[in-house]
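lol ok so funny story. i was supposed to be doing the assay writeup but got distracted and ended up predicting the structure for this chain instead. priorities right. anyway since i did it might as well share w the group, maybe its usefull for someone
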Amino acid sequence: MHSLLYTIVVRILVLGSLGLTGWEKWSYLATILSVLVNGVFLFFLIKQVRQGQAAQKAAERSADAANNSVKEALYARIDQQAPRVVALLDQPTIGGVQSESKIAWGADQEAVLPRDKEKYLYVGVTGTLINEGKGTARVHLNGAAEWILDEEDEPLLMGPITPSQDDHILRPGQQVRFLWSEAHSLEDWADAYSNPSPANPRGACFMDVIVHDYFEEGVIDHIFLEMSGRPLVPVVGDSSHWKIPDKAEFAAISYPIKRAHLCENNHKITPSWVETYKEWDELHGS
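and the output, tada:
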């Protein structure tokens, strides 16, 4: 490389100086040397800048790794002292149809669509929240749910409820029962049956159990719950008549806990069901 560069420089000097007087040759040589010196200086300057940039990036990576290690250690220490509330759901129940002030519709009755499309069919589930962690939890039911503080309050039929506004305190090892009851119109339930793909949210209900601890730099846990399925099916041989099946394909699930740490800048958590119904939402502009 150096030999080739030397040969090129010599040829430039020789060819460029042909036909020039003595003074002009010296001026020409001085110009060529000046260009070469500046070029070499520029080459080493660029090389130095690139080395500096590489060193800076390496330092930034090292700093990020150190910060992540500190953050992970902090989170681990916080998590050890935080509450850990889990949700255990019972078998969901398909309730009655609400028409005006009445909620009474059993599996032996039928609805006619579109005549009854604005009536509502309730579904619901009871469940238990248990604090398996070391810290005391403050639990909030973010949805159409209420606390069951007495065994006599266990529901026999699902229907409208007054959502609980009060938080419930769960110390380590304690548990509490709750009821969650929601409804969709018969039209929505029928649409979910007739158009199951992509996953149709008109056949699902959602809620969020929010868990706080009592530390300044503590945690916020979200337990996302979902009820979904086919509580309403068409009568065989008559597509305008619909009924509650004897054995409905209907389930209630508790998604894995999603945790946010208060020392983070962003505490926003995306509900677990968003990805499930993403395709349907995009198709329908939701």
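The chain has four helices and 15 strands. Residues 22-81 form the longest helix (60 residues).
back to the writeup now i swear
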